[in-house]
Automatic annotation (TrEMBL):
Keyword Flavoprotein: yes
Protein name, UniProt field: 4-hydroxybenzoate 3-monooxygenase
Pfam families in alphabetical order: FAD_binding_3
Gene3D superfamilies: D-Amino Acid Oxidase, subunit A, domain 2, FAD/NAD(P)-binding domain
InterPro entries: FAD-bd, FAD/NAD-bd_sf, RIFMO-like
Signal peptide: none
Length: 403
């Protein structure tokens, strides 16, 4: 942590938010709704964050949380509602109607659309201050009651200093917020030892629900993003080169791994995104350091195995935004004091489910006959035991986690 620059008179905001993703923008909107001034700093341009492809599955509790804060109207108008998913293994199709079991559902709404909604509400409607394209952000004096943040303005090249009471670190694993944590911070990591080839296809969805293909050649996933675009995943070696996967090879593997008796062939189309994700998780404990509060990927990563990342970011944002308002408006510090512990209960619950689901997805392709046998046992139990089905549905929807 560096000393603040000796520039002109510093600006002052009660809260500085570093990072304009779902977590940072939600916190900013909560603060502005309560009349609290804040500043959001973002390294990328507005156009970039509104187009950056990311997750698309939002759990119902998270949507209701956005709705209570006046942030869900466009989502509720345009999102798809999913109440079922389908597992395909051993050449057969197994439909899982989690909506019937729980009365709840998922919303499918790509993250770029949510970010577009949130930044419009924050900057254009609620009058929140946001600065794009900032460089060399630095955090200062976090262990004092008067921390500050400095950065280089992209337009002028000048250093700017902002004094504040709190910093919300929402800038991901590679952002400045992670670099200032003390050595006593615990970072738990888990590497699954596999990769996923993440694909966006300019092709309509081939099913009305999410498909999970459990296959000896590797896992495959199908997730609708819009009527014209579909997200696909293919298990691959970690660190694989996306160029190893030609158009023809991708579609041949998808057709094979997602094929099942009675199912129509997938609708193919041009691949507009192709990148390899190495599956790994991490958790930072505690999620606070002095006046710095981490949220979203700055504090934890859950591999897309269980589609939990954006939901956890929103959970953090709800808790932190409400806690900051309580402190700044009513001098009630209980929410800030309990923030890390409250977040981590859900984080670890989702981490455990991700690990469990990874065995279901990848055990058959592991080359280990024992793991393959236990994978099929889990799948059979899911479709023959009402208790197992109910437990899975709760975890899949996030309703079992403490909130």
């Amino acid at each position: 942590m560096t000393s603040p620059p000796n520039s002109g008179a510093p600006q002052r905001f009660p809260v500085v938010i570093v990072g304009a993703g779902p977590a940072g923008l939600t916190i900013g909107n909560i603060l502005r709704a309560a009349g609290v001034d804040c500043l959001v700093l973002e390294a990328e341009t507005r156009a970039f964050i509104e187009q950056r492809p990311r997750a698309g599955v939002i759990e119902e509790w998270a949507v209701r949380g956005l709705q209570r804060r006046g942030l869900a109207d466009p989502l509720l108008e345009r999102a798809q509602v999913h109440t079922e998913c389908e597992f395909r293994f051993a050449g057969e199709r197994f439909r899982f109607a989690y909506g019937e079991l729980t009365g709840q559902h998922h919303f499918v709404y790509p993250q770029p659309l949510l970010v577009t909604d949130l930044v419009r509400e924050y900057a254009d409607v609620r009058g929140g201050e946001i600065r794009f394209g900032v460089r060399d952000v630095r955090l200062h004096d976090l262990e004092t009651p008067r921390p500050s943040v400095s950065y280089t303005d992209a337009g002028t090249g000048e250093r700017q200093l902002v004094e504040c009471e709190f910093v919300a670190g929402c800038d991901g694993a590679r952002g400045v917020s992670r670099t200032v944590l003390p050595e006593t911070t615990r970072i738990a990591r888990h590497d699954y030892g596999i990769g996923w080839l993440a694909l966006l296809a300019e092709a309509p969805p081939s099913s009305d629900c999410v498909l999970f293909g459990i296959h000896p050649s590797g896992f495959a996933g199908h997730m609708a993003r819009s009527p014209e675009v579909t997200r696909y995943y293919l298990e691959c070696p970690p660190g694989d080169d996306p160029d190893n996967w030609s158009h023809d090879r991708v579609w041949a593997e998808l057709q094979q791994r997602l094929g099942a008796e009675g199912s129509a062939p997938l609708t193919e189309g041009p691949l507009i995104e192709k990148r390899v994700l190495d599956m790994h998780n991490y958790v930072v404990e505690p999620m606070t350091y002095g006046r710095l509060f981490l949220a979203g990927d700055s504090a934890h990563l859950t591999a897309p195995i269980a589609a939990k990342g954006m939901n956890l970011a929103l959970h953090d944002a709800f808790l932190l935004g409400d806690a900051l308002v309580a402190y700044l408006d009513k001098d009630d510090g209980s929410g800030l004091d309990g923030y890390s512990q409250a977040c981590l209960r859900r984080v670890w619950d989702y981490q455990e489910f991700s690990q469990w689901l990874s065995e279901v997805y990848h055990g058959t392709s592991s080359g280990d006959e024992y793991r393959a046998g236990t994978t099929f046992a889990r799948l059979r139990r899911l479709f023959t035991s009402p208790a197992a089905a109910a437990a899975f549905a709760e975890q899949y929807l996030g309703t079992a986690a403490a909130y």
